[in-house]
TrEMBL record, chain A:
Keywords recorded for this protein, A-Z: Activator, Nucleus, Transcription, Transcription regulation
GO molecular function terms attached to this record: transcription coregulator activity
Subunit structure as annotated in this protein's UniProt entry: Component of the Mediator complex.
Assigned GO CC terms: core mediator complex; mediator complex
InterPro entries found in the cross-reference section: Mediator_Med18
Name recorded for this polypeptide: Mediator of RNA polymerase II transcription subunit 18
Coiled coil location: none
Transcription regulation found in the keyword field: yes
Functional description taken from the UniProt entry: Component of the Mediator complex, a coactivator involved in the regulated transcription of nearly all RNA polymerase II-dependent genes. Mediator functions as a bridge to convey information from gene-specific regulatory proteins to the basal RNA polymerase II transcription machinery. Mediator is recruited to promoters by direct interactions with regulatory proteins and serves as a scaffold for the assembly of a functional preinitiation complex with RNA polymerase II and the general transcription factors.
Subcellular location: Nucleus
From TrEMBL, chain B:
SUBUNIT field: Component of the Mediator complex.
Lineage of origin: Eukaryota, Amoebozoa, Evosea, Eumycetozoa, Dictyostelia
Family under the similarity heading: Belongs to the Mediator complex subunit 20 family.
Alphabetical GO biological process terms: regulation of transcription by RNA polymerase II
UniProt-listed InterPro entries: Mediator_Med20 (IPR013921)
Keyword Nucleus: yes
Location within or outside the cell: Nucleus
Annotated Pfam families: Med20
Role: Component of the Mediator complex, a coactivator involved in the regulated transcription of nearly all RNA polymerase II-dependent genes. Mediator functions as a bridge to convey information from gene-specific regulatory proteins to the basal RNA polymerase II transcription machinery. Mediator is recruited to promoters by direct interactions with regulatory proteins and serves as a scaffold for the assembly of a functional preinitiation complex with RNA polymerase II and the general transcription factors.
GO CC, one annotated term: mediator complex
Keywords for this protein: Activator, Nucleus, Transcription, Transcription regulation
Protein name: Mediator of RNA polymerase II transcription subunit 20
Recorded GO MF terms: transcription coactivator activity
């Protein structure tokens, strides 16, 4: 049974990874007082959450059984992960400051629906810092209910895409590893086929505002033990959708690209429709 | 929790405290609520009416807050305030606070305190809860009449009788049993009717 308070919930790798730790987890290694202090301060103040998620991502291409053996040796708990996740984005244009006037904030609200319970996570835009070898995103977790869907739409958010997540969460005192598969949501809301044949791996922990470096080092130490089963890297998912080289209007269809693998010319579960660059494989809609 | 009635008391706090203590009421704790109006931040010149909602925080529910919009009432964790701040799409415009005391008289709980809006006292809010009944509409005991008798008979006299029956039909999704969601709507309605929010 997944324990959100201890192990941190959520999971998944890649762009849609979602840890839902209701309490921040801290490393218990020495020399990380700033890490502890910041977390303690932020927990004490209601409504003043400055908790950041530090994460590394990877795709498992090696045999699953050997990887799981290694992970079980490193982690203390194992819990199944099975939920539906909906990602909402705001449509409201910013009214300031001046440099952001008229822009739409890149923040997202992820709603996880699991066993008739609604978990909500606000995710800020990723902070890619060159001297810190982990992806850092500001997160705020709350527990909602069925009315939250109506409410968030009233607040100007619209559903962008949704998917199912299945897999396992392995956790120890201070960090969590998610080994999951993402599945497409069919038109009737039921579970479709897997989006990728490989499992996605995410290693993550939560940090206070001044503990990025300690958290990143902690993650990378664990990541080294998982190599070469999986290579966990700092990955900015925005590159997938904002790469200036790949413009959907100008890029040729995959069938016209020399050397493009034939088996990738159609999207799985799309009834043989050709794959278009810039198309969201999660919802069959364009980015 | 029991059914509640909220009304504006047009006297002074010592007056009503004297009546409560005469009835045997005992002050048990302090009490505070905070109601903020949030308006959507729209770029200048859009000409659209901004969306709005009220966010209520009760000190008796330290981890929860209640959001009341035109057609939805939501109970959620208090961290939603941080999300609103970071999302930057809604801005807190005005805040009304009530900070006072809580008294208990048998099955009745009375909370009262001055309503502070823009650092001015706008009146005295009194909340009377009958803790023995949580289903005002279907109960054969009909606690609204009992509350009315208690308020008008013991805390009055009032120029006009205090109405204890409250119409929640605007929010059909509210649960059957009286809850904090009902109380939130009553407070928003109360502040609007008293021309505070």
């Amino acid at each position: 049974m997944q324990n959100y308070n201890k192990a941190g919930g959520g999971g998944g790798g890649g762009q849609h990874s979602l840890p839902y730790q209701t309490k921040p987890q801290v490393p218990n290694t020495s020399g990380q007082e700033a890490y502890f202090n910041t977390l303690n301060n932020t927990q004490g103040k209601a409504g003043a959450s400055n908790i950041y998620e530090c994460s590394l991502h990877g795709i498992l291409t090696t045999p699953l059984s050997t990887f799981i053996q290694r992970v079980k040796g490193m982690m203390r708990c194992e819990a199944p992960v099975n939920y539906k996740e909906m990602v909402f984005k705001t449509t409201i244009q910013s009214a300031g400051p001046s440099w952001a006037e008229g822009s739409i904030l890149p923040s997202e609200i992820h709603i996880r629906y699991e066993k008739n319970t609604v978990y909500v996570r606000y995710i800020g835009s990723p902070q890619v810092k060159e001297n810190i070898n982990a992806m850092i995103r500001n997160v705020i977790d709350i527990k909602g209910n069925q009315s939250f869907f109506t409410y968030i739409e009233n607040l100007g958010y619209v559903k962008d895409y949704e998917y199912f997540v299945e897999g396992y969460c392995y956790s120890t005192y201070n960090l969590s590893l998610y080994l999951v598969n993402h599945k497409r949501v069919l038109a009737d809301g039921t579970r479709g086929d897997a989006i990728n044949k490989h499992s996605m791996v995410e290693l993550q922990c939560l940090s206070g505002e001044e503990g990025f470096i300690a958290a990143a080092e902690h993650l990378n130490t664990y990541a080294e033990y998982l190599y070469p089963f999986v290579e966990l890297i700092k990955f900015d998912h925005r590159n997938l959708v904002t790469d200036p080289i790949v413009q959907p209007q100008q890029a040729p269809p995959p069938s016209q690209i020399p050397g493009f693998p034939a088996h990738m010319m159609t999207m799985p579960g799309s009834g043989g429709q050709p794959y278009q660059i810039g198309q969201n494989p999660y919802t069959n809609s364009n980015f | 929790m029991g059914y509640k009635c909220i009304f504006l008391f047009k006297g002074t706090i010592p007056d009503i405290v004297k009546r409560i203590e005469f009835l045997g009421g005992v002050k048990v704790s302090t009490w505070a609520i905070n109601c903020s109006l949030y308006l959507e931040r729209l770029p200048e010149g859009t000409g659209m009416a901004p969306r709005e909602f009220h966010l209520l925080v009760f000190d008796e529910k330290p981890k929860k807050c209640f959001m009341v919009s035109r057609d939805t009432i939501l109970e959620t964790d208090r961290e939603i305030i941080s999300i609103l701040d970071k999302a930057n799409s809604f801005k807190k415009r005005q805040t009304t606070e009530v900070i006072g005391s809580r008294y208990e008289i048998g099955d009745f709980i009375i909370r009262l305190g001055p309503i502070v809006f823009r650092q001015e006292v706008k009146g005295i809010a009194v909340e009377v809860e009958y803790s023995a009944c949580a289903t005002p509409m279907t109960s054969p005991f009909n606690c609204t009449k009992l509350l009315s008798e208690f308020i008008n008979g013991n805390l009055g006299p009032f120029p006009e009788p205090i109405q204890t029956h409250f119409d929640f039909s605007q929010y059909p999704s509210l649960p059957k049993h009286y809850s904090d969601l009902h109380t939130s709507y009553q407070y928003v309605h109360f502040f609007r009717n008293t021309n505070i929010n």
